[in-house]
Amino acid sequence: xxxxxxxxxxxxxxxxxxxxxxxxxxxxxxxxxxxxxxxxxxxxxxxxxxxxxxxxxxxxxxxxxxxxxxxxxxxxxxxxxxxxxxxxxxxxxxxxxxxxxxxxxxxxxx
Amino acid sequence: xxxxxxxxxxxxxxxxxxxxxxxxxxxxxxxxxxxxxxxxxxxxxxxxxxxxxxxxxxxxxxxxxxxxxxxxxxxxxxxxxxxxxxxxxxxxxxxxxxxxxxxxxxxxxxxxxxxxxxxxxxxxxxxxxxxxxxxxxxxxxxxxxxxxxxxxxxxxxxxxxxxxxxxxxxxxxxxxxxxxxxxxxxxxxxxx
Lengths: 110, 192
Fold this sequence. Notes:
Largest interface: A-B, 25 and 35 residues
Helix content of chain A: 55-70%
Structural class of chain B: mainly alpha
Oligomer: heterodimer
Order of helices and strands of chain A: HHHH
Number of helices of chain A: 4
Low-confidence stretches of chain B: 104-115
Strand content of chain A: under 5%
Distance between the termini of chain A: 62 Å
Number of helices of chain B: 10
Order of helices and strands of chain B: HHHHHHHHHH
Low-confidence stretches of chain A: none
Structural class of chain A: mainly alpha
Helix content of chain B: over 70%
Radius of gyration of chain B: 18 Å
Number of strands of chain A: 0
Distance between the termini of chain B: 24 Å
Largest sheet of chain B: none
């Protein structure tokens, strides 16, 4: 058999999609909006990163403390309190953003 | 595929990235049959292949912004098709399927000689022969002859080496001829 004969035979083996295939795909696409995975608030990875960050920051703090880099007029403690406060604030805001997204999704009114 | 067709693909993809559903619809119309046929080469089942084709176009729509315009759109699309079909095949092997009869069963009722066969019957003989080929042979043959991909593009789609593609192509041609001869005997000449 020649190459052109194989080509002709295999072209005949093409399967046609059923009627309305394109419409079905398009309606499926429109029916399912892209759902981004909701952020995991307390994963093992996050906890590990938090511990590592605290360890690194503590190391840096202990290293440079003696040079007075972190010591303000109010002493060294406010630095850590500010850091924890900011982390806590970030967590609360992330939670609120997630809650708003969920409320928006479940709301019947668009 | 010629460069004009490739330019048209790029144009449609660019418009689809910018949110044109009409352009994406045009891409589906252009490739739906080839995607279904490639999927059928892997899963050997027409109904399942159609479901896979649907899944492929949904995946492509979701990820179209990731297309880099470095390769042909068709190469990217066929790569997704082969991956999705292989995943479906793995799932099918792990579960008992009641809903999808094998393609061979759907076609076993046809038993007439090619000389008396209508064009539609001839197509069924070809499908039957293609379905008896190994997955890699059917896939490579269809990529080469139906989708008109080059050896290097088939390499990118299937992740086979170029030498394996060539060997598979050679073996596929030989086995297709044997299968057709087994089905039709000397009437094979009437099919060509």
